[in-house]
């Protein structure tokens, strides 16, 4: 069983000096009838299919499999609800953790979110100066919700 424990935060970009090289990500979601999520993702030149369970705090089941790029691209075009999530991910090492900073484009232009994966929900970790408000349990920031209610509509 694969358990993902992840916390999400908003970011103050004025506190970041230089970003490392990023990787472009396009992802979409195939509708389900329960609380699970089926995600199709193209990350760089690789395709992935991910199935996630219902969130319980910062934890949920997650199963991810690499799939052929062309299959992922066709699924994004023909099976996934629109709009497709378009973002660039930057990996930033801080203290003993890897942070993933996502800068969104398209329908979610202007949104910047950082995530940290943990071994345990109670695990202690240091916050970088560029991390601001925690939004882990605010469903508006879940990527599958950004498809349903894009950031541009929040204002």
Name the descriptors.
single chain, globular, mainly beta, 10% helix, CYTH-like_dom_sf, eight-stranded antiparallel barrel, Hypothetical Protein Pfu-838710-001, 155 residues, CYTH_domain, Adenylate cyclase, NeuTTM/CthTTM-like
- Intertermini distance: 39 Å
Number of domains: 1
Indicate the CATH topology: Hypothetical Protein Pfu-838710-001
Mean of residue pLDDT values: 93
Poorly predicted segments: none
Specify the structural class.
mainly beta
Strand order, sheet with most strands: 1-5-4-3-2-6-7-8
Overall spatial form: globular
Annotated CATH architecture:
Beta Barrel
Question: What is the ordering of alpha helices and beta strands?
Answer: EEEEEHEEEEH
Please count the beta strands (DSSP E, at least 2 residues each): 9
Sheet having the most strands: 8 strands, antiparallel, barrel
Corresponding CATH superfamily: Hypothetical Protein Pfu-838710-001
| Rg estimate, integer Å | 15 Å
**Total count of helical runs of at least 4 residues:** 2
Architecture overview:
With 155 residues, this protein is mainly β. It has one domain: Hypothetical Protein Pfu-838710-001 (Beta Barrel). Helix content is 10%, strand content 44%. The chain contains 2 helices and 9 strands, in the order βββββαββββα. It has helices at residues 69-78, 143-148, and strands at residues 3-11, 23-30, 37-43, 46-52, 59-67, 85-94, 97-104, 112-117, 131-134. Strands 1-5-4-3-2-6-7-8 form an 8-stranded antiparallel beta barrel. Strand 3 and strand 4 form a beta hairpin. The mean pLDDT is 93.
């Amino acid at each position: 069983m694969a358990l993902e424990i992840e916390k999400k935060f908003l970011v103050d970009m004025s506190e970041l000096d230089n970003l490392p090289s990023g990787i472009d990500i396009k992802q979409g979601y195939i509708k389900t009838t329960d609380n699970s999520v089926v995600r199709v993702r193209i990350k760089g030149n690789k395709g992935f299919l991910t199935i996630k369970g219902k969130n319980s705090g910062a934890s949920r089941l997650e199963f991810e499999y690499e799939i052929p790029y062309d299959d992922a691209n066709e699924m994004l075009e023909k099976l996934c609800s629109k709009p497709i999530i378009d973002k660039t991910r930057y990996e930033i090492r801080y203290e003993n953790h890897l942070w993933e900073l996502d800068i969104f484009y398209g329908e979610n232009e202007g949104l910047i979110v950082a995530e940290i994966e943990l071994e345990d929900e109670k695990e202690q970790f240091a916050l970088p100066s560029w991390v601001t408000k925690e939004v882990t349990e605010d469903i508006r920031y879940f990527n599958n919700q950004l498809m349903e209610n894009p950031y541009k509509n929040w204002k």
